[in-house]
Design brief:
The complex is a heterodimer. By secondary structure, chain A is of the alpha/beta class. Chain A has helices at residues 13-28, 49-58, 76-89, 137-145, 150-163, 192-195, 267-280; strands at residues 34-35, 64-69, 92-93, 102-106, 119-123, 174-176, 181-182, 201-206, 211-215, 221-223, 251-256, 259-264. A seven-stranded mixed beta sheet of chain A has the order 1-9-8-5-4-2-3. A three-stranded antiparallel beta sheet of chain A has the order 7-6-10. Chain B starts with a strand and ends with a helix.
């Protein structure tokens, strides 16, 4: 390797080791938030640096990378991050969910079911789920240790009594492995069910907040909900995607001059569904 | 016995081995002359029976509130043991509740003991609605059914003579007396065995005071919990309690039936206290 080129994966080996240690701890304690030394990146904090650092410290030459932003492979954030990772690793890239070994995502879980050969890396803006009800970090740690989430439940109680259901649409609190309650990053409620018992390893990186946490493969993930109330998610059964005709997937609401349109949020799913429909016809 | 305190002390500061001897009733000071630590509670032993109402009187700084905080475990004791409600270890011996793990402590606070503070800001979370505050206590005791929680919250909100239509209002929108009543509803919602009241009516006007005291008394009669009432107002003590202890400089100086203490005080300090009553 020439003197001017960067090391594989941008970081030196000590930096990777530090982050992998944090990840090991995170995997050992599902849902527990582990601090790590978040490093300066060539993109601004708050633009996916947490996910980027996690990806760069676990990626190997054999990996195939997919990066999505709100389900889309082609949005600016996704393209920038993918181009950067490719430039410092030279790994193969893909948009096909089943072909990828590492999928870095911003705020969506892919529609296509993941396998135990894949790792899903989430970009997280606010890792601490108790932040809204308890600003004191020392108290937050105590509450996590004692599984004391009464204050989060009070928010749920208040929403239910005043609005009939929780008002949270994204970032819905989930309990991992019947212990820690964690912030699942701003994925829609629709995706919460996909986290539960998922064969893939799920890693969460928050660069600005300097935190890493994880859900190991096949781990129970349950949304906080009252036992006599249903967990209601976004319902798209009556509106198919206008491009591919899919039903039962998460749709984007697009406002154009001629009114409201609905398209798949997951672009890989939309492309394959459209192809299948064309082949069938 | 529901609650037993054995030689409980609380020292704020570094503390030395002379602290307990050189402060208290006889020494007539609460600050240790050698290490300048404050001995807020000095070697107190007490017992409270089921359904009993115990009053704690004394001047400001005599350690009344600290004593309650030690029982409720808002702060840890320096010496002594507290036995409560038949808690036992694996061998069947009585278990000191000061040595419990945090999860067990919060279990006791959510199921068996409640505290009503003088300042509603300490007892209520002002970011939550009145109903949310009551729900927090019920949720803490492990209930996860919304309908049950809501029903209980409405029940206790009605119990404190508040219009149930206001249950989703925030504490800031209630008067001081109403905030105090919401605290009572919150404290009672877990059906505790022991209720701790720290100056529950200080700062309220007399007509509101009387109504809150009547309410507490009626609820105690109905639900049958024991109470420890801390107050420097002898009228409150006379109205509520069966037994009274008098504290000075962190020590117990007199103990007896409330009417006996108020009619025939023995200790010079109690005599002074009773004679200063307006």
């Amino acid at each position: 390797m020439s003197q001017n080129s960067v090391t594989f994966g941008f970081f030196d080996e000590d930096a990777k080791k530090e982050m992998r240690r944090a990840m090991l701890k995170a995997v050992a304690l599902p849902g527990y938030i582990v601090p790590f030394a978040s490093r300066e990146m060539p993109i601004a904090r708050g633009w996916g640096t947490g996910g980027l650092q996690v990806t760069l410290s676990i990626i190997t030459e054999k990996d195939t990378l997919k990066v999505i932003d709100q389900g889309c492979d082609g949005s600016v954030n996704a393209v920038n991050i993918r181009e950067f990772i490719l430039s410092v690793t030279g790994v193969r890239e893909t948009t096909a969910t089943p072909d990828a070994t590492i999928i870095q995502t911003r705020h969506r879980v892919p529609e296509y079911p993941l396998t135990d050969q894949q790792i899903l890396v989430y970009q997280v803006p606010t890792p601490e789920v108790l932040q809204t009800v308890e600003p004191d970090t020392a108290r937050q740690k105590e509450m996590h240790a004692n599984v004391d989430y009464a204050k989060l439940w009070v928010l749920l109680y208040e929403d239910t009594s005043q609005f009939g259901d929780s008002r949270i649409a994204a970032r819905y609190p989930v309990q991992v492995n019947n212990h820690f309650v964690m912030d699942p990053s701003p994925i829609p409620k629709f995706d919460i069910a996909k986290m539960n018992n998922n064969p893939a390893l799920q890693l969460f990186g928050a660069g600005r907040e300097k935190r890493i946490y994880a859900i190991p493969p096949y781990t129970a993930v349950e949304p906080l909900k009252f036992s006599d109330r249903d967990f209601v998610v976004e319902d798209f059964t009556d509106t198919p995607c206008e491009r591919c005709g899919s039903r039962g997937v998460f749709l984007d609401e697009v406002h154009l001059d001629d009114g409201v349109h609905y398209f798949c949020s997951d672009t890989y799913h939309c492309d394959t569904a459209k192809e299948e429909a064309a082949n069938a016809a | 016995m529901l609650l037993e305190l054995h030689n409980i002390s609380k020292i704020f500061g570094s503390g030395c081995r002379f602290c307990l001897e050189e402060t208290g009733e006889i020494a007539d000071r609460a600050i240790c002359p050698r290490c300048h630590s404050i001995v807020a509670v000095n070697n107190i032993s007490l017992a409270v029976e089921e359904r009993e109402i115990l009053g704690v009187v004394g001047e400001s700084g005599s350690g009344k509130s600290t004593l309650l905080q030690l029982i409720y475990q808002d702060c840890g004791a320096s010496h002594g043991e507290i036995y409560f409600n038949g808690h036992r270890d694996k061998k069947g011996n009585k278990r000191d509740i000061l040595s419990l793990a945090p999860a067990q402590t919060s279990w006791i606070r959510n199921h068996e003991m409640s505290m009503i503070y003088q300042n509603p800001h300490l007892g209520l979370n002002f970011n939550f609605s009145a109903g949310g505050n009551i729900a927090e206590k019920i949720l803490g005791s492990g209930e996860k059914r919304y309908d049950v929680i809501r029903e209980k919250a409405l029940y206790y909100f009605g119990k404190i003579e508040m219009p149930v239509s206001r249950i989703d209002d925030y504490p800031i929108n209630f008067s001081g007396g109403q905030q105090q009543r919401i605290q009572i509803a919150k404290a009672l919602s877990s059906s505790p065995r022991l209720l701790l009241l720290d100056e529950p009516t200080t700062g309220l006007d007399v007509s509101v005071q009387a109504r809150i005291l009547d309410l507490i008394k009626a609820l105690q009669y109905e639900m049958g919990f024991a109470m420890i009432v801390v107050s420097h107002d002898l009228g409150v003590i006379n109205h509520l309690t069966d037994l009274t202890v008098v504290m000075k400089n962190g020590s117990l100086v007199e103990y007896g039936l409330t009417d006996q203490i108020l009619e025939d005080p023995q200790h010079p300090y109690t005599q002074l206290l009773v004679s200063s009553k307006l």
